[in-house]
Amino acid sequence: MTEASDFLTATRTFYDAIAEDYADHFRDLHAKLPWDRAVFALYAELVGVGGKVADLGCGPGRVTGHLASLGLSMSGLDLSESMLAVARRENPGLRFERGSMLELGHEDGSLDGVVSWYSSIHTPADRLPHLFAEFRRVLKPGGHALLAFQVGEEPRHLEQPWGHPVSLDFHRRTPEGMAGLLAEAGFSVRSRTVRAPEPELDEKVPQAYLVARA
Question: Which residues does the UniProt record annotate as the domain Methyltransferase (predicted)?
Fold first, then answer.
């Protein structure tokens, strides 16, 4: 098994196991986070009503559905079939497909936007240049990417969430490092937001949001 397939298999296995618990736990998260809602509103305005956007690593489709409600033409992609089952159930009017962010099925320059909402956090650092090059490939000139991630240098290792016998690493990144990688892939970062952790949500580190233009 290759290193790439190792981390993809580990990620898929983890989220297949916890999909229903994860969806229930984070169901009302946007209502508690005005920063998220503000970033989504900004992003939707930049892309424009009807813009074709792929939510990559969409999980249970919470972000996909919210951005669709703001007027974007959304689709979702995820490794986990269990997560996709939840996404399809809760967003019956949207299209969700199984696949990897590292090998997108979209044609070159076919999208107005891509979203990676806490989904690049399982990609090893040496694979991020390829990931962002793939984002750039599928975007039209002037298209926008939206990324969210936890800020830091050290990964978090999560063991047995909700009692399930699985574990996974969650990589934290620096906004400067991520912005540099996006620039190397052909993006210009238009917005960089870092907020303090929310203790009520059990957040331990700051959270970052980047909006970049192809």
Answer: 53-143
